[in-house]
Amino acid sequence: MKLDPNAVQKKLFPATTMPDPAWWHTLWPHPEGVIRALGIRPGMTVVDLCCGDGYFTAPLAALVEGKVYAVDLDSAMLERARAEVERIDASVKQWICVDARDLSRLVPEAVDFVLIANTFHGIPDKTAMARGVRAVLKPGGRFGIVNWHQLPREQTVILGQPRGPKTEMRMSPEQVQDVVESVGFELEQFVQFPPFHYGAVFRRKEEKDA
Ligand SMILES: C[S@@+](CC[C@H](N)C(=O)[O-])C[C@H]1O[C@@H](n2cnc3c(N)ncnc32)[C@H](O)[C@@H]1O
């Protein structure tokens, strides 16, 4: 069943529209390097949450040999992502067209890694989202968030224009850490993705770790 486009629009997180490919590709010339720097390795099963047009999904699918669940609420994005994955002759396990908030009901197995790139800033209830992510991870699984640095928007200029979410929506690494660690994760590493981004990788904590 296809969702009504207006209903989809209403459910999308604020300020999470897929950027124009011209400046996105200029900003992220090596998407596979980003995925590797976050600690994603062959053999892992990964959820690409809010995957958009597949800019990170395609190299991810190649790296983990298809063990990817690609999730987005916008079916047009999933179609573009599917075309990109096919273009590089890779595959994903499942395309899942749902609201990310329903993740834990819809991913059919526990996974090693959940990636959310360029979207966390817009999620209204970030704590609930992190809890939902925890529920789909295997014990000791990782949650990786790629975010814009907390710089004024007028300073994040790409191809001659300020880009990215409004200044007031941007989060520092420490703010992300506070949210995610409050629901049973511990920080594994921060990674820098110059010029304007960082990654934060968390490990799912178990009771025996306490
Ligand atoms: C800024 S794009 C980022 C795409 C990709 N992760 C990247 O970094 O290239 C954000 C994506 O999140 C999706 N999205 C927004 N709200 C969502 C929701 N509630 N559930 C699932 N996907 C959502 C949008 O459709 C869009 O494709």
Query: Judging from the principal axes of the Cα atoms, what is the shape?
Result: globular
| CATH architecture descriptor name | 3-Layer(aba) Sandwich
Helical region count? 8
Q: Bin the strand percentage.
A: 25-35%
Number of domains: 1
In spatial order, strands of the major sheet run 3-2-1-4-5-9-8
Kindly state the percentage of residues in helix.
25-40%
Largest sheet composition: 7 strands, mixed
Bound molecules: S-adenosylmethionine
CATH homologous group name: Vaccinia Virus protein VP39
User: Would you tell me the overall average pLDDT?
Assistant: 95
Topology-level CATH name: Rossmann fold
Low-confidence spans: none
Total beta strand runs: 9
Structural class: alpha/beta
The CATH class name reads: Alpha Beta
The SSE string, one letter per element, is HHHEHEHEHEHEEEHEE
What distance lies between the first and last C-alpha atoms, to the nearest angstrom?
A: 44 Å
Radius of gyration: 16 Å
Describe the protein in words.
The chain is α/β, with parallel strands linked by helices. The chain has one domain: Vaccinia Virus protein VP39 (Rossmann fold). 31% of the residues lie in helices and 25% in strands. It has helices at residues 5-11, 21-27, 31-37, 57-63, 75-87, 103-106, 126-136, 173-181; strands at residues 46-49, 68-72, 94-97, 111-117, 137-148, 157-158, 161-162, 185-193, 197-204. The chain has a seven-stranded mixed β-sheet with strand order 3-2-1-4-5-9-8, with helices on both faces. A two-stranded antiparallel sheet has the order 6-7. The longest helix has 13 residues, at 75-87. The radius of gyration is 16 Å and the shape is globular. The model has no long low-confidence stretch (mean pLDDT 95). Bound molecules: S-adenosylmethionine.
